[in-house]
Amino acid sequence: LAAASDVFVENFVPGKLAEMGLGYEDIKRIAPHIVYCSITGYGQTGPVVQRGGYDSIAAAVSGLMHITGHEDGEPVRPGVAMTDLATGLYTYGAIMAGLLQRYKTGKGLHIDCNLLSTQVACLTHVAANYLNCKIEAKRWGTAHGSIVPYQAFKTKDGYIVVGAGNDHQFVTVCKILNLPEVSKDSRYKTNTLRVQNRKELIDILSTRFSEKATIEWLQLFEGSGVPYGPINNMQQVFSDPQV
């Protein structure tokens, strides 16, 4: 079967398949062209590779849970298995690259994909902030650590998420909320200042958002150029015409 196959995918604890005569070196002797992909919790080397790996455990060890949840709340598991899903996507990309290499060289290879490495890689700017500047991460709820406003706001009957990614968009948000004086306030002129004065600004915006229903705000933001959207439940998701 291996001799006639292009890809071999396995998710056993490292070393287990080798004990059964099905490790990479075993398969390579039969099928040197094979793209052999191992998916594990912690990879092929290191002090804890023999541990089993589940999505939630990797999300905890990688720091994802540390940065997920309300600012003053406990760590939270994402609503779906994001680490599992991301690892699957990384695996897909690695296998495709492996097949391309084999097409060019005629040689296969052993790919090591694992939950922990994938999720650490997915920390993106949070990891970069720590590695480059030693800035420890924290939980922000629906908000963003370095862009304000960029979060969910409670309306009369639900929630709307609004992201003002630049100063022009912030001015537009203030116009829609009929708060022109806020955009002119020296404390909120730039994103840097808005981050510094986050609490005061969010309090003002939250009060205004609470005055109308979600659908009313959606209608007001339509065509404004400001990214926005409701927080939908499943019924709303699967009745959305865009979905």
From TrEMBL:
Pfam families assigned: CoA_transf_3 (PF02515)
GO cellular component: mitochondrion
GO MF: succinate-hydroxymethylglutarate CoA-transferase activity
Keywords: Transferase
KW DNA damage (keyword) present: no
Superkingdom of the organism of origin: Eukaryota
Residue ranges that the Swiss-Prot or TrEMBL entry lists as coiled coil: none
Listed InterPro entries: CoA-transferase_III_domain (IPR050483), CoA-Trfase_fam_III (IPR003673), CoA-Trfase_III_dom3_sf (IPR044855), CoA-Trfase_III_dom_1_sf (IPR023606)
Family according to the record: Belongs to the CoA-transferase III family.
Protein name: SUCHY transferase
Source organism (scientific name): Motacilla alba (White wagtail)
